[in-house]
Amino acid sequence: MYKEMYPHDDLTNLSEELVFEQIHQLLQEGELPPMSEVSVQDIAAIALNKMPPKYITSILEKQNPSQSLREEMDDLRRYARRQVIKAAERVREHPHD
User: What does the alpha-carbon distance between residue 44 and residue 38 come to, in Å, rounded to a whole number?
Assistant: First the structure.
């Protein structure tokens, strides 16, 4: 793939991180039942397709985000939670595994 031809280790999609954070939290809270890795991946893929991408590259931005980035992340976190819940309902109705 072309991506592998270029340095990209510092490129992070915050939306992806937030979706997996919300999946983990909902599992820990018991809001989602225990599930297979395939179902987790299905939920993540469905939710991520509804999320706006939010890429950052700076290590400083990751470790010490600005106030505006923190506010944007809070909004994205709430949106990610809603999308994960919707995706989980869809996967429950139409399991892949």
Answer: 10
CB atoms within 10 A of CB 43: 28
DSSP lists the bridge partners of residue 55 as 13
Per-residue three-class SS string for the chain: CCHHHCCCCCCEEHHHHHHHHHHHHHHHCCCCCCCCHHHHHHHHHHHHCCCCCCEECCHHHHHCCCHHHHHHHHHHHHHHHHHHHHHHHHHHHCCCC
What integer pLDDT is reported at residue 62 of this predicted model? 75
pLDDT class for 1, splitting at 50, 70, 90?
A: confident
For residue 48, the model assigns a pLDDT of 98
